[in-house]
Design goal:
mainly alpha, 4 helices, 52 residues
Length: 52
C-alpha cells in the first residue's frame, strides 16, 4: 500500500467535519503554536489566556 501525502486542505476539511476533535484531544491543542490576533481599537483578545 502506497502512502499519499497529507495536504493542509485535507486537515482543514477533517477539522471542519469534526469540530469536537480538539475537545477529545486537548493534548494536541496545547502543542499548537497559534498566532496572536490583532483586533485594533484597544480590543484585547483574551483567547490566549483561556487556552493556556
Amino acid at each position: 500500500m502506497e502512502k499519499t501525502a497529507l495536504r493542509a486542505d485535507d486537515v482543514a476539511d477533517y477539522l471542519a467535519e469534526h469540530p469536537e476533535f480538539f475537545t477529545t484531544r486537548p493534548d494536541l491543542l496545547e502543542s499548537l503554536d497559534l498566532p496572536m490576533r490583532e483586533l485594533g481599537n484597544g480590543v484585547a483578545d483574551m483567547q490566549q489566556y483561556v487556552v493556556a
